[in-house]
Amino acid sequence: MCYNIKDLRRSKYLNDKIRNYLKYIEDKINNFTEQSWAKKLRITSGVAWNLFLLFIVSCLTMFIFVASVGAGYFASLVAEEPLRSKQEMRDDILTYEETSEIYLANNIYLGKVNADLERKEIKLEDVSPYVIDAVLATEDEYFETHPGIVPKAVFRGIFQDVTNSASQTGGSTLTQQLIKLQILTNEVSYERKAKEILLALRLEKFMDKNEILEAYLNVIPYGRNANGDNIAGVEAAAEGIFNVKAKDLTLPQAAFIAGIPQAPFAYTPFYNRNRGLKEPEYLKPGIDRMKTVLFRMKETGYITEQQYKEAIAYDITKDFREKELRANERYPYLTQEIQNRTVDILAKIIAEEEGIDPERLKSEAKLNEKYKMLARRAMSTNGYRIHSTINKELYDRLNEVAKNFEHYGYTYTDKSKDPDTGEEIIEKFPVQVGSIMIENRTGKILSFVGGRDFEIESYNFATQGFRPNGSTMKPLLVFAPAIEYGKIGAGSPVVDVKFNIRPTWNLNNFQAGQELGIIPARQALATSQNLATARLYRDIIDHNPAEYLDKMGFSRLDEVDYQNYSLSIGAMRHGTSVEENTNAFGTFANAGQFIDAYMIEKIEDMDGNIVFEHKVEPVEVFSPETAYIISDMLRDVTKYGTATTMKNNLNFSVDIAAKTGTTDHYVDAWLVGYNPNVSLGVWLGYQDNKRGLYPNNLRNSYLPPSTRVNLLFARFMNAANEVSPELVGASDTFQRPEGVVSRSFCGISGLAPSTICANAGLVKTDLFNAKVFLPNKADDSIISASYVSVKGKKYIALPNTPAEFIVQGGTGVNEAFITRMLGPWKGDASKLFPANSPFASSVVSGATFNADSANPATVNATVSGATMSWTESSSNDVIGYYVYRNGSKVSTIRDGAAKSFTISDGTYTVRAVDITGRLSEPSNAITIEETADNEEENNQAPSNEEKPRDEDKSDNKNVDNDKNVDNDKDEDVEETPPEEEQDED
C-alpha cells in the first residue's frame, strides 16, 4: 500500500495539535478539582452515581428475576402442550366443522342436515372487502405486522387481570382467536392463554396472513340465522342473516356481521327455536355494535367520512332475512330418511376404516350403536354433499295426492294429557299410508310417501313399517317358484278345494264357503284364491322357495317362516316393508334380476372427493321366462281380478302387472304393481296393527279397503305419468323371451291333450317356460262315467240309484287323477268340478256319495192357479222328486230343476228321492176338483204322465254351465292359523 508524503505530514500535524488541546483541558480540570468546594461536589456526585448504578443493577436483577420466574411459569404452563408439526397445526386449523348438505336428483339443493351448528366453507377471494376491513379494524388493527401476538396488548391484559380492573379490553389477535377456536378451548385460565400465545407465534411461521384470515372467517361464531340455528363462518352468516353471499355484503351488512363475534347471542338479530326476528329494543345492541365497527373503520382509514355517515344512517333492519322453514320442516319424512340412510352408509365406512367388518354391525347392537353415533357426528360436521335419487317434482306431487285423498277411512281419537302443560288433549289415530316408487333397471327410489302427517306420526310407513304382506306374497313365493321349478305353466290346473291339515288351520278363500275346484293357475292368482295357493305351495315347499325371498331382499324372515305353509298367503312372523315388497316385484320387470333399491346416489366431502358411490349389483333370481310368465299372469289381476278398479281409474294406457293383498280383519291393505320401467307399492293401515280398516259398526260408511288402495294407487300412477312421463314410460311393454312358448294341454290335468280330452272340450292353451316344463305326457285321467246330481254336485251313480235320475255317457275322471290332484291334504272330491267351475258342464268328479240309511225328509206342497210347487227336502242326499196323481207317479224332477208341476184335476203329492232310491213320506195332498171343461180336455189330450220328456234337456237345466267366477270381489283376505296371526303382530 502507498501513501502520499504530503498527506502523512498533514496527519502528524493534526495529531500533535489534538494532543496539545487535550493536555490544556486536563490542566484546567486539575486546577478546578484542587478547589475545596469542588472536592465536596466530587464526593457527593460519586456517591449519587454509585447509588444510581446500584439502583439500575437492582432493577435489572429484579427484572431478570421476574422475567426468569415468568418464563419458568410460562414454561410450566405449556409444558404439557405437545410440539406440533407444521402439518399437524395446519390440519387442525383448516379442519372445519361444516354442515352437510342434501341434494336431490338432477342436483337440486334440498337443504342442510339437522345439526347443532351450521357452517359453510368459503375462500377469502369470495368474501366482500368490506368484511375483511371491518374485521381487521375491529378485531386486530395490527394483523398485517404482528408475529401472532401484540406484546403490549398481552401485558395490558395481564395487568388488568392481576389488578382486577373493571375495564377488560382484551388483547387476542385473530391468530390467537383462531388457535382458541380450532385447537384449544374457551377455558378461562393462564394455562390456556399461555398455550394460545405459544401456538399463535408458531402458527404464524406455518401459515401466511391470508390463510389465517380465511380460516378465521370460516370458523368464527356469528350467533343465529333467521331459522334460529347456530351459525359459524361468514358465508353462513351472510346467507342466514341477510340471504346474500358473503361476497355481496354491503358496508352496513359487513359491519353488522363483523360486530357479532364479540357477543354472538346478544348481537344476533334472531331468536332461537325458529321464533323469528327479535323486537326493536333487543335489536338495538347489535345495531349499536355495528355503528362502533363503522367508527373504527373510519378511524383506521378503511372508509371515508362520507361512507361512514351513509352507513350510520342506513336502516339495517330492512335487510334481515325472513324466517323460513328448514328442510326438515318442509320435507320431514324425506330429510329424516336421507339422513338415516347416510348414517348407515358412513357407519360401515368408518367401521371398515378401523378394521371392523361392517357385517358385524348387523348382529352386534352395541357395535352398531357406536359406529352410528360416530357416523351421525361425521354427517353433521364434515360438510358432506349427500346426493339422493329422489325426484323432487315427483315427490311433491305424490305427497300432494296422498294429502288430498278422501277415502282413507275412519280416524280414531283418544284423550290424553299434555306432558308439559298437563292439559287434556285429543290424540288422532288416522289411517296411515306408505308408498314407494322405484326405477326397475337401476333400483333408484324415485319417490315415497312416508305417512299422513309427520306431526301426528314421524314413523316412515314406506321404509320403516314392517307388516305381513298378505296375498302380494303369492306370486313371489308360490307361483313364480312353481313355474321356475317346472311345476306349472301359466294356465296349468291347480286345486281350489278346502282341506284341514290340522285343527288350528282351517283355511278359507275370501268368500268363506267358496271352492272353485280345478281352475287355471292364472285364474287362481288373478282372483287370489287362498286354497289353490296353499295347495300349490305344499307341492313345492320341499324346494325351499323362501330362499327366493332372501335373494329379493326380504330382511326379516324368521326361521319358522321357511317351513310355515301360511307364509304362502303372506302370514310372516315379522313382516316386510313397502320398500322391500315393492322392490321384490321389480324382479319380474327386470327379467328375473333383483336390483336392490337405494336412495343415496353418492356422498362427497368438502373437496369434492367421493366418499361413497352406489353401485348396482344385480342378483339372478328367476329366469327371464319365469319373470315374463308371472308378469303376464299379473296382467290378469288388473283385467278381471282384484285390481280392476285400479286399472279402470288410470287415465292413460299402460302395460301394468299388479297384485293386491289384505290381512286378517283388514288390518293391512296392499297393492303392488309395475310396468317395464317403474314399480309402485301402496299400503294402508293403522299404526296400531290390531285395528282393522273396517271399524266396528262402520262397515257401510266407507269403501272396502281393497277399493281404497286401488283408487289411491291409480291416482299415484296418474300423477307420476303427468309429472315424469319419461320415467313411467307408459308406451313400453313387457318383452316375451324366446323360451316362453304357447302349448295346448288338457285343462283339468295339465297333461298333453288326448282324443277323449279334446272330444270333451277340455283342451286349453297357455304359456310355458320351455326350458323347464312342457306338457308332453299324454293325459290319462278321463273316463266315461254315469253320474247323478245331488244339490248341484255330480257324483257317480250307486248300484241302487234310480235309473231315471242317472245321466249316461258323461265325462269323468279316474280315481288316480282324484288322488293326484287332491294330494296329501285330500279334500272333498265332489268339489273338484263344482257348479262354478269352468269345467263343470263337461266333467264329473268321480266322487262317490256316502249316503245315509234314512229316508229323505218330507216336503210341503202348495198350489197357485194350475201350478203346484214344493219345498226342498232338508235331507242332504236327495237327487230329485217324484210327483204323484191320484196315487200314480206322473213325473220325475231331477235335482237342480224347478220344484214345480202343472196340474189339472185330481189329488197330487210329492215324494223326495235319495241317491239310494229311498223315498220320503208323501207331501200334503193338493186336490183339484174335476169340471166339465176338464173332462172335455181330458178326452182331447194325453195326461201329464203320458207326455214325452226330453231327459237330456231336463238335465241341462240342472247344470250352471261355465258360471263365471266373481271377478268383482273387493278383497282377497287371508285366513291365517291362530299362531300365525300372533306372528303378524
How do you describe this structure in short?
The protein is of the alpha+beta class. The protein contains 32 helices and 31 strands.
Largest sheet: 5 strands, mixed
Distance between the termini: 115 Å
Question: Averaged pLDDT, please?
Answer: 86
Q: Could you state the oligomeric state of the chains shown?
A: single chain
Biggest sheet strand line-up: 2-1-6-14-15
3D structure, described in words:
This protein has 985 residues and is α+β, with helices and mostly antiparallel strands. Helix content is 38%, strand content 16%. The strands form 10 sheets. A 5-stranded mixed sheet has the order 2-1-6-14-15, with helices on one face. Strands 10-9-19-18-17 form a 5-stranded antiparallel sheet, sandwiched between helices. A hairpin with a 5-residue loop joins strand 4 and strand 5 (230-232). Helix 19 packs across helix 21 (530-540). The model is unreliable at 934-985 (pLDDT under 50).
Key words describing this protein structure:
single chain; 985 residues; alpha+beta; five-stranded mixed beta sheet; five-stranded antiparallel beta sheet; 32 helices
